[in-house]
Amino acid sequence: MFPKLLASLLLLFMIHKMPSDAQKKKETLLSEKVGHLMDWASKRSVIRLNGDKFRRFVKAPPRNYSVVIMFTALQPQRQCGVCRQADEEFNVLANSWRYSSAFTNKVFFASVDFDEGSDVFQMLNMNSAPTFLHFPSKGKPRKSDNYELQVRGFAAEQLARWVADRTDVHIRVIRPPNYAGPLLLGFLLAAIGGLAYLRRNNLEFLFNKNVWAFTALCFVLIMTSGQMWNHIRGPPYAHKNPNTGQVSYIHGSSQAQFVAETHIVLLFNAAVTMGMVLLCEAATSDMDIGKRKIMCVAGIGLVMLFFSWLLSIFRAKYHGYPYSFLMS
């Protein structure tokens, strides 16, 4: 009796451990999907997906890998300059992951172009580009799986931090060498050195307070316009709606900005400063009264006009602020 009972228990245990046909089919399908993705990733760090590939490899189970997708519109007729800039940064990130020693099949990088996968855009109710989404290995994307492009910018380093938060995959961004900055700095230093050498017998200009005042003013204008934020965050130059074609140069949130916005603010601040300089000169110079009146009127006009525009920009970013153009 005991041997028969032991044999029955052993048989039940073996049946319980044997994978079902459905499980085998699922494992086979998953292995094929991972194999295809690995093969594509070996040829191109950012895998290009159309509607069929998106539904098969991203939406349809089974999936034990994450997919980070950039939805973009790179065709020339779309005129999306921001998409091209974002695509370059996305490729830097994908290449850094693909050619790192830690590369695995845990996460893949892919892109869906509007002209190749408009049905995917419709499926996800997406009406702007570029957009970055993370599709986790289990479950559906959450709100945090939608990258906040307008806040963080599309620099590869910022994207890498977001990917690490969503997947626990830490990517060390490696950029190709760029010699433009060092060459420009070397040229500037050479020009300054050459000028100092040519005027080595007359270096009074180095002690000219107007030269140093102008240099300091330029530095202050650059810093207060937000150029340092642009360097750290890498925001887009502007935003163009792919559906309407409308271009926005001012970001509508106080938490982010466009590069064009900082240029506009810099010019407005410079105009206000010029107006203040004209007013000071009109009050202290020895010119005749007629010229001083013209300088005074021009200075007041510059200050009122451009300071009002600055208030309008501030109001567009901080909704509810009561002042705008011409103080109204």
Number of helical segments? 12
Which strand order does the major sheet show? 1-3-2-4
Strand content: 5-15%
Q: Main beta sheet: strand number and arrangement?
A: 4 strands, mixed
Beta-strand segment tally: 6
What would you call the shape?
Answer: elongated
User: Level of helix content?
Assistant: 55-70%
How does the helix and strand content classify structurally?
Answer: alpha/beta
Query: Radius of gyration, Cα only, in angstroms?
Result: 30 Å
What are the secondary-structure elements, in order, as H or E? HHEHEHEHEHHHHHEEHH
Low-confidence stretches: none
Q: Calculate the mean pLDDT score and round it.
A: 82
Give the termini separation.
99 Å
What topology does this entry show?
Blueprint (H helix, E strand, L loop, with lengths): L1 H16 L3 H23 L2 E3 L2 H9 L6 E7 L8 H18 L8 E7 L4 H6 L7 E5 L13 H4 L3 H12 L12 H19 L10 H16 L2 H7 L5 E2 L6 E2 L10 H26 L4 H29 L11
Parallel strand pairs: 1-3, 2-3
Antiparallel strand pairs: 2-4, 5-6
Helix pairs in contact: 4-7, 11-12
Please give a structural write-up.
The protein is built from twelve helices and six strands. The protein is an alpha/beta fold and 328 residues long. It has a four-stranded mixed β-sheet with strand order 1-3-2-4, with helices on both faces. Strands 5-6 form a two-stranded antiparallel ribbon. α4 packs across α7 and α11 runs antiparallel to α12.
